[in-house]
Amino acid sequence: MTLDNALWLAIAAGVIAIVYGLVSVRWILSQPAGSARMQEIAAAIQAGARAYLNRQYTTIAFVGVILFFALGLALAGPLPAALRWARFSPAWPLYRYVHFGSCQCAHRAGGA
Questions:
Q1: How far is CA 6 from CA 3, 9, 19, in A?
Q2: Are 112 and 106 in contact (CB under 8 A)?
Q3: 13-23: average pLDDT
Q4: What is the C-alpha separation between 83 and 77, in angstroms, rounded?
């Protein structure tokens, strides 16, 4: 299989998946909602799922912020005293790339 054929196959598979999803959604939404008791149970399930996901997102955000700062401090190279604040700046990744990126790679590879 050539790369061109693989690309068209992937695009076709994506289009088929989208069409299948749209047809499935349309069919599911056309089905009756069920009795009042079924709707009550569905509402309770949705409320529980919403509470669970809110808790998960809160936990993931908390861990993500901690990891962001821990990795930022762990990966930080030596900085001049005047630029130590830069570790907490949104521009820190750009600063690291510009000032340490190519220099550290060349140095680690044995270059100048």
A1: 5, 5, 20
A2: yes
A3: 98
A4: 11
Place of tokens 């990795």: 71
Handedness of CA 69, 70, 75, 81 (dihedral sign): positive
94 vs 64: CA distance, rounded Å = 20
Q: What is the dihedral of CA 40, 43, 45, 49, to 10 degrees?
A: -170
Yes or no: say if 20 and 12 are a contact pair by the CB < 8 Å rule.
no
CA angle 106, 109, 112 (to 5 degrees): 45
| Whether pTM exceeds 0.70 | no
Q: How many C-beta atoms lie closer than 10 Å to residue 98's C-beta?
A: 11
What digits encode the pLDDT tens for the residues 65-108?
998 888 777 776 665 555 566 566 666 666 666 666 555 554 44
Amino acid in the structure at residue 14: G
